[in-house]
Amino acid sequence: MDYGKYVAKRAKDIEISTIRFFFNMVNEVEGAISLCIGEPDFTTPEHINKAAVRALENGQTFYTPNAGLPELRNEISDYLKRRFNLEYNPKSEIIVTIGASQAIDVAIRSLVEPEDEVLIPQPSFVAYKPCTTLAGGRTVCVPTYIEDEFILRPDVLEKYITDKSKVLIMPYPNNPTGAVMTKEQLEEIAEVVKKHDLIVITDEIYCELTYGVDHTPFASIPGMWERTVTISGFSKSYAMTGWRLGYIGAPEGLASELLKVHQYNVTCAASMCQYAAVEALKNGDDDVKKMKMEYDKRRRFLFESLNEIGLECFEPKGAFYAFPSIQNTGLNSQEFAERLLKEARVAVVPGTAFGENGEGFVRMAYSTSMENLQEAVERIKGFIKKINI
Ligand SMILES: Cc1ncc(COP(=O)(O)O)c(C=O)c1O
Predict the structure, then answer these.
(1) Residue nearest to atom 2 of ligand 1 (CA)
(2) Does ligand 1 lie within 6 Å of residue 216's CB atom?
(3) Is the Cβ atom of 179 under 6 angstroms away from ligand 1?
(4) What is the 3-state secondary structure (H, E, C) of the chain?
C-alpha cells in the first residue's frame, strides 16, 4: 500500500534523530563503549522508587488533575523558589508534563501559528526543530560558535530576527555543547527579546547540572518572567529518564492556554510517577549533589584528556556532554563518528545531529562510568594516532 499519500506533509517533513541511528549501530559492534545517549547511568534513588511502589499499593492509580497532583505542583513551586528564587503559583502557573519533551511540544504548539518564525540557537537539542515543523511554524537556526563557548550572542540573534519572529528557544545549559550562559549574558539577550517583542521558551532541564557556575533561569532576568515559558524536569537531575516526568512554569494567562493543549494531548502524567516526583523534590537534594559530584569528576577527566590527545575541547560548564572539535582529523563529523565506532569501538554522536553548524564536532556524553571513559579515551587516542594527526 502506498502510505505516502495518506501521511501528512508535516510528518514527512521531519526525520528520526541521528542519535538513535548511532545508538542502534552500537549494538551491532561487539564490545563498543557508548558515549551516545544523554541519560544518567545511575539508577533512580531507592526512596524515590519506593514512593511509586507505595502509590501503587495504596491504589493511587487514577487520573490526576490535568495540571498534575496539587501536592506535586506545590513541591515544584517551593523548589523553584528555594533553588532559583522563581515564583510560580502552584494553582495556576505550573503544569506537570510527560517529560520535558512533551512540555516542549505543548509550548511550541500553543504559541506557534503557521508562518511564525521560531529562533533556535544551534547546536541544540534535537526536538525543537521538528516540534516547530509539526506546529506549522518556520525554524530559524541561529548559530553559536566555539569562539564564544557556544553561548548565544545578542548581535548574532539580531541578524536572524524578522517581522515574523515570534518565539525564541533558550537551550541552556546546553545539550550538546555543555555551554552555560551567565546572568549578564542573559540580560543582553533579554534586551533583544524586549526590543523585538519575542516570547521565550527556556529549556532548563539541566538546571541542576552546572559546574563551578550558578544556573540563572531566564525568567529571573528583570522583565522576562512575564514573557517566558520555563521548562524543566526530573530525567537528568534525579536519574529518572524512564519515569517521563517534566513540568512547565508560565504566567497564568499563558499557562491556562497551554493547559488546554496538554489536556487534549495526554490528560495528565502517570499518577505513580507523580508521587515519586513528590518524594524526589522533598528528599532528593543529596542524591542530586552526589550524582553531580561524580559527573564533575568525569567532566574534568574527559575534557582535559581530549585536549591532551589533540581534540580541542572547550570546558563544558553544564549538562553531561563534551563537544570536542574534530576538524584537525580531516574527517567530517559523520565520518569521524562512523569510523571511530567501526575502528575503535567507541560510539559518539556527530555534531550535525544538533544542527548544521555542529559540523566539525562530535558529542560525547560523560554520563557513563569513569572506567568506560578511561577506556574510551585510550581507544580514541589510538584511533587518532592511526589516522595520523
Ligand atoms: C535539552 C533537553 N531537553 C529536553 C530533553 C528531554 O527530556 P525528558 O526526558 O524530560 O523528556 C532532553 C533529553 O535529552 C534534553 O537534552
Answers:
(1) 125
(2) no
(3) no
(4) CCHHHCCCHHHHCCCCCHHHHHHHHHCCCCCCEECCCCCCCCCCCHHHHHHHHHHHHCCCCCCCCCCCCHHHHHHHHHHHHHHHCCCCCCCCCEEEECHHHHHHHHHHHHHCCCCCEEEEEECCCCCHHHHHHHCCCEEEEEECCHHHCCCCCHHHHHHCCCCCEEEEEECCCCCCCCCCCCHHHHHHHHHHHHHCCCEEEEECCCCCCECCCCCCCHHHCCCCHHHEEEEEECCCCCCCHHHCCEEEECCHHHHHHHHHHHHHHHCCCCHHHHHHHHHHHHHCHHHHHHHHHHHHHHHHHHHHHHHHCCCCCCCCCECCEECCECHHHCCCHHHHHHHHHHHHCEECEEHHHHCHHHCCEEEEECCCCHHHHHHHHHHHHHHHHHCCC
